[in-house]
């Protein structure tokens, strides 16, 4: 049995640590085999050694570009919670393989999760064009339209309708920070401050460095006259957005018509 047969067998059996050892030996004999690099990268993903996994997957792409390698590289960034890098990888993948519906759908859902509805609609629409019989693509577009209409209703102050639309979107992307931010500010508009804080804290948990979410948390706490909590969140927002004048005015407690910030 050859080394490649041996490592493939270990890989299929889920013995990823043992497989990496054999794959590394095989790579010494053939450094230009993209499949060895790809499978080695996948093994490292299972072992949660993401830096090594990225190195191997990049090597595989350098040798021979494949859709599956892009998908696995994007998954690493998703596992690390870095949506921006994941989007960059999937954008390159779609440029390489523009008719791959899995890539188009994944990229569209990532844009939907970030509240970037126009780009989400573009990619999910393309996925439906190439695979019109896939009911999941139709469902994704339904979620997208609900998110976009919810954002519009929220802008016009129709918070109940907006919340109804956002509930539909939550089925598709339940861990979307912009979605929970918008839901929280709908409750703020309805003067349901406890519910607003609960949703905003979920958004903050999912995106701890998003200054707009911190701003909104500060605004809600200030409205509830919880000044210590308001100071905490507004100070954190200032750390990420030090040139935003409204943050300093809000922190100082000046009389001002404050506007909640939505994530579009």
From TrEMBL:
PROSITE patterns linked: TPR, TPR_REGION
Protein name: Bardet-Biedl syndrome 4 protein
Keyword annotations: Repeat, TPR repeat
Keyword Repeat: yes
Species per Swiss-Prot/TrEMBL record: Camelus dromedarius (Dromedary)
Family: Belongs to the BBS4 family.
GO biological process: cilium assembly; protein localization to cilium
SUPFAM superfamilies registered for this protein in UniProt: TPR-like
Pfam family, any one: TPR_8
Entry coiled-coil feature ranges: none
TPR repeats: 67-100, 101-134, 211-244
A GO CC annotation given for this chain: ciliary basal body
């Amino acid at each position: 049995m050859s080394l490649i047969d041996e490592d493939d067998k270990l890989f299929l059996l889920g013995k990823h640590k043992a497989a990496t050892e054999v794959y590394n030996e095989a790579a010494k004999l053939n450094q230009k085999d993209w499949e060895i690099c790809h499978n080695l990268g996948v093994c490292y993903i299972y072992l949660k050694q993401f830096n090594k996994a990225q190195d191997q997957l990049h090597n595989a792409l350098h040798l021979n570009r494949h859709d599956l390698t892009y998908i696995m590289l994007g998954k690493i960034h998703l596992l690390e919670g870095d949506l921006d890098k994941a989007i960059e990888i999937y954008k390159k993948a779609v440029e390489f393989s523009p008719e791959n519906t899995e890539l188009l759908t994944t990229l569209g859902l990532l844009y939907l999760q970030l509240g970037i509805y126009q780009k989400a609609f573009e990619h999910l629409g393309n996925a439906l064009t190439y695979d019109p019989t896939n009911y999941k693509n139709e469902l994704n577009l339904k979620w997208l339209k609900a998110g976009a209409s919810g954002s519009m209703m929220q802008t016009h102050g129709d918070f109940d309708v907006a919340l109804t639309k956002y509930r539909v979107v939550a089925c598709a992307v339940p861990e979307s920070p912009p979605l929970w931010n918008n839901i929280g500010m709908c409750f703020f508009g309805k003067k349901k401050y406890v519910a607003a804080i609960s949703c905003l804290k979920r958004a903050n948990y999912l995106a701890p460095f998003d200054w707009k979410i911190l701003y909104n948390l500060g605004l809600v706490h200030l409205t509830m006259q919880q000044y210590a909590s308001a100071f905490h969140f507004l100070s954190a927002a200032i750390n990420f957005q030090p040139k935003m004048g409204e943050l300093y005015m809000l922190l100082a407690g000046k009389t001002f018509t404050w506007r909640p910030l939505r994530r579009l």
